Each structure stands twice: as C-alpha cells, then as structure tokens.
Amino acid sequence: MALIVQKYGGTSVADLAKIHNVAERIIRTYQAGNDVVVVLSAMAGETDRLAAMANAATGDKPTPREYDALIATGEQVTVSLMAMVLNSKGFKAKSLLGSQIRIVTDKNHMAARIQKIDADFILSELGKHRIMIVAGFQGVDRKGNITTLGRGGSDTSAVAIAAAIKADYCETFTDVDGVYTTDPNVYDKARKLKKISYDEMLELSAAGAKVLHQRSVELAKLYNVPLYVRSSFNDDEGTLVTREDEDMEKEVVSGITYDRNQAKVGVIHVPDEPGIAGKLFTPFSERSIIVDMIIQNASVDGYTDLTFTIPKKDIKQVEQLLDVVSREVGAERVHIDPDISKVSVVGLGMKSHSGVASKMFTTLAREGINIQMISTSEIKISCVIGAKYTELAVRVLHDAFAMEIGQ
Amino acid sequence: MALIVQKYGGTSVADLAKIHNVAERIIRTYQAGNDVVVVLSAMAGETDRLAAMANAATGDKPTPREYDALIATGEQVTVSLMAMVLNSKGFKAKSLLGSQIRIVTDKNHMAARIQKIDADFILSELGKHRIMIVAGFQGVDRKGNITTLGRGGSDTSAVAIAAAIKADYCETFTDVDGVYTTDPNVYDKARKLKKISYDEMLELSAAGAKVLHQRSVELAKLYNVPLYVRSSFNDDEGTLVTREDEDMEKEVVSGITYDRNQAKVGVIHVPDEPGIAGKLFTPFSERSIIVDMIIQNASVDGYTDLTFTIPKKDIKQVEQLLDVVSREVGAERVHIDPDISKVSVVGLGMKSHSGVASKMFTTLAREGINIQMISTSEIKISCVIGAKYTELAVRVLHDAFAMEIGQ
User: Fold this and answer.
1) Which domains does chain A have, with CATH numbers?
2) Confidence of residue A407 (pLDDT cuts 50, 70, 90)
3) CB of A191 less than 8 A from some CB of B
4) Which residue among A148, A188, A375, B307 is buried most deeply as judged by most CB within 10 Å?
5) Minimal Cβ distance to A73: which of B66, B77, B145
6) What's the predicted TM-score (pTM) here?
7) By the CB < 8 Å criterion, does A66 face chain B?
C-alpha cells in the first residue's frame, strides 16, 4: 500500500475512449490498496485551440490574466470528465481545480511558480477513501486570480503535489514508455533505461529530450521524489528517475540526445574590451531570449569573435537586436546560421571516467562531421554540428558508447 | 450616469466577431459615463456540446457535482475572451467567475439557488474604473464546489447581481429585440410591447414565452429591478419589464402565448375517495415531473376523472408510473394525448375587466376549435386545444383582442 501521484498527459486523455482507459488504470492502482492522487493535462490539442482563440480575439496580444483564465478551462474539462467516469464505474472520485486544492502561485501569469500547496486538505480528502483528480498546469495567486505554470506545467503540478503530501512516488504517463538511450525515432537501437539520476535527466531535458520538463525534474530532485516515466498505453515498467546510486555510477553514458531548435550566432571581430559581453547580452535577457552555449575566442590583436546559440524561433528578433547592438560594440559583422544541431552525450560516469570527450570527438571526425562549437558540464558534452548530420551523429555516438550505454 | 447590469445570451457571443460587436456595445455604455457589470452566457451550442460529452462519458448518468464543474467552463471561456478583447481595445476590464465574485448558492447541483452575492467586492472593483465581466449561470456552494443554476441561469445571475449592487437597471440582450404580443414567427401582426409588468411577464414565461426565464422575472419583481429586454443585434428600445403602473392597467390584454411542449393525461373512472389525488401525484413530484393544469370532474356515482398536463419529454416515465399507480387507485384506464397545445391570454387588465374569458371561448368556438381544458389565474386564461389548431388560435385571439393589445 502506497501513496501515489499519477500524472497523465494530453495524449492519454485525448478523447472519451482514452479517458475510460486511464480510468481503468486508476481503478487498478486504487484497488491494489493504494491512495491515488491523479493530475491531468488538457485533452491533446485543446490548449492550442484555446490559445489560438485568444490570439485571434486580440491580435496576438491577450491579457496574461485572461489568457490564464481561458486556457485553464482545458484541464477543468478533463478532470471533471474523469471524476464523473470514475463515479459512473462505482468509485468515489472528486475533481479539484488549482483554486480548490489551493495550489498557490506567484502572480506571474502564463509562467507562474508554485509557492504553497495545502497538503492537509489533500490528505484529509484521501482519508475519506476518495480518488482525487487534480487539474494540472493551473494554480491561483494569493488574490484568487487563476494562473498557469507554463511549459511542462502538469508535470510540475504532479511533482509539487507528490512533494507536498510526501507521496511514495510520482508516475508520469505519456505516449512514450520511458526514457531512452536516444530517440527511438532516430535510431532503432535505442534502449529504454530502467533507472536514471535526476542530474542526468536534467541534462537530457536541457539537451533536447522531451519526455519530462526540466522544472519538474528540478523539483523532484529538490524534494527527492522518485519519478516514474511510463506509457499510458501499455504496462511496461518505465524508467525510474531518482537519486544517483552506485549502479548508476558504473555507467559511463546514459544517453545521446539532440536539439534541432537552436541557431548559431557569430558576432565577428569585436574589440576585446571589458564589458562587451554584458553590453551584447543584456538586451537578450531583457527580452527573455535564452542564450545557450557561449564561446569567446582568444583575443588576437585586441579583437575577438563571440559565438552563441539561440532558439530558432527568436532569429528574427535577434537579427533586429544585433543590427543595433553590434554597431554599438564595434563588431565587424554578424552571422546567423540556422542549419545547425546540438548533439549531446550525457552520463554520470563522466565524473570518474576520462576519455568520453575524446571518444566523442574522434567518432564524429571519423564520419567527416565538423564540430562547430563545444560545451561541457560535469556530466554532459555537447557539440554543435551541421543540421544534416544530426541522425548520423546520434547513431554513430550510440554505437560508439554501446558497451557503456543504458544497462 | 447610471449603474447598469448587462446580460448577453449565447447567440450574442456565439463567435469572435459577435464577441467584438458586444465589446463595442459595452464600450459605448461605459463611455457614456456608466458603470457596467456584464454577465455572459456560454457561446451558443457550447453548453449542449459539454453536456453531450458528459452524457456520452457516463451513459447519461454524470455526477451532478462534476457535471457542473464541466459545463461551467463554457462561461469561463466567454468571460475571459470578452475581458481580453476589451483590454486589447484599451479598456480596463476583468473577468470574474462565480467562485471569484463569490456568488454563493445552495449545494443543489444543476439547479442551485443563489443565497448571497458579495456586493461590496463588485462595487469596490467598479470603483477602480473597471468593467466587470461576470460568468453567468454559475456559483459556488459554501464549500467551494462549483454549482450551476439550471435553465435561464444567466438571466438569474444578472438580475441577482443587479439586485445586490442596487443597479439602476438590468438589460438582457438576446436574439429578439423585446417582448411581443405574441410569437412573431407565428403571427406577423405581433407587436413589440414597450412596457410590461413583472406579473404579466411571469405568466407569459410560464405559458411558454421563451424570452426571459421565470426565475429571473421573479427575482426582478422581488427586488424591484427594472429589466430591459433588448436585441444585441440592433439598437431598438426593447421592452421594459417593471412594476405595474396606471398605464398598464388600462390595457386588458398584453399578450397571447402558446406552449406545444405539454401532453394531456386522463386517468378515467377513479373512485372518488379522499387521498386519491395525493396518491396519484406524489410519485410525480418525487421524480420532479412537473404537473401543470389539473382538473377533477364532478363526482358521478362515487367515481371521477382526473385530467392533467405534463411535459412531453416525460411521457415515457409517466406511462410506466401510471401503469402501477392507476391500478393502486383503482382507475379504469389511462389515456395520454401528446397532440395538444396550450394557448394563453395574459393581461393585467383582466383584474378589472370582465368578459375576457368569454371572448376567448367564443373566438375559439367560432373557428371550430374545441377547448379540452381550461385554467385561469388572476391575469391569465389558458386553454388546451388540439395541437394542429395552435397557429390558428394564436392569430384569431390576437385579432380578437387587437384593440386592447400591446399599446
């Protein structure tokens, strides 16, 4: 008997038939003697439909407060449907909105942060032998305005609730059945990992793996919530995201991932003076443009080149920005290349094993793949390469680390 | 400068173009120097779509609590869209749900009654020069569960808010531009009334006119809220529903209305003993079947016939019920006739004018229309006739009372 939080994503509740399937899974978990708190997303496509309506109604400038009130209806629909389906099957279940369970957030609409969850309320409801169906992605600020949590919000809701009520573990059900050594759509030799550490999962998410949002993994790590990634369409074991242990450290590499959504920006021949990088990047952060890898070449004759990556969707804005800023800092020219891709090797074992970087570089070189940028963290090495080499790079790196990968 | 509550029905906010039109009307009202509280219904068809989903998901047995949480999203969508549209046009507006404005109701889901509205909150928000956009049809019980008010709920919300904040008047905008002497679709000589009393409007609504729901009129009468019925598609004056005054009493008849949704039930040759009617009708009220006109013939040899009308949609249930009950009370047989219609003449003037009833009966007789049942109130006479005569009856009665009708 355990206290379990289950989160089902939009594809798992995309229509009434799928909602019935999920209901059966909830019932099985409950009948096995567990207490169950379920967190749901909106039906697949519903959030996009509502967002499109808001944009069409306002010429793409919806008020954040009203936008949140509008799109929060997506989760309200799925939780009330799920609760009534469970009721109709003879089980006591109850839907709860962010405002009812009191998931209190800051007032930063469209990207709010959870501040407080009323754990006593949830536990007292569970004490009445109910299954709780909670709307993910939404909360309320202290004045009772509806807020939403932004990308990956339902994952974040689920982990935050699990942390608050000290659940034994949190399961997130999606349309993939776990975390893979790489994207199975790119390489059929990808294998599912049984276990992965929070830090590796964070690096994988940051490096482009879409299975869990970074914020939810950060939260799980912070509160030490064991997190299972499972498919709602089968009964596979899935992948456990948890604290690192001895087993994990034996592995050198746990995954190869890639990100096609970046573009490379070069600001060429800039006077190498103190404060240049600050001048260059302050306007980016003011506009919430996330600059990822940043490389500054060694200075030659008092001049240097700055190279960095930005999200592809921000190219236009960055062009306009640099048009002004590059002149201010005295750069010779700016070059933006959208045809790149970031390939990363992630693994806890890197901490104690040397040779991972050189193996990565020689493997790519052997295939004639030029490395344009390199960045490293304690457990990750990322290389920017030409976009057309993405799949090839993923496959040869997966093969190269095959002995060590994903036990 | 006035304090005005405006209510827009589902057809007035059926799509984004119509929402923009309504926004313009709200802005005109606001710019004329008024404080405006707007109450909205869900987009036309949306409540039905959600209800169908709930029924499909549960085999027509949705839990009332979850049903309310589900269909309340319909109004949440329109109020947040309207508020963001007004914001995008440069006006301070704010959407408020039943739970936020705290429209507190009893816990009778799907047909809740309003118990309390936080007028101070609304007035303090208005004090900040905001336009308030309130979700109609919904409230919360004292435990924070979402409730809905049942049929005509948004009209009721609007009038209740107008009463709570002591608004100067309440306007309800629909797809018709006022209250007519009869249904213009049935008779092109129908005229729009400038003014009508609460009591007449109540009788018209009860007798089948669909322009305002009875509950909202009752509430308006109780709190003496002047109520304008207007079209959101033009700038016509509409009809004012208000306290009766001298002008009104000069009129004998204010409207002819009809109701095709009734069926006639005859329970034939019942022993005329005390308690028979109770035995017969208790099972009806237990199942919330509304029995309208009830007529008991004079007793002959200790036996009598009971005739009454029920909503057509309940025929099946009534048949099953009477199968049992008619035997219990010793009736000879039961006869159900769905091919009937109720035609009514309504007018304050009846109180002081005699001859309305006889004029109604002779007018119908002249056309060979047989009257099957008659019921009267202080200001209404209703006759049950064969369904096929409905339009004819409406026209000849409208002509017969033409001199007195709708000044």
Assistant:
1) 3-175 (3.40.1160.10)
2) very low
3) no
4) A148
5) B77
6) 0.84
7) yes
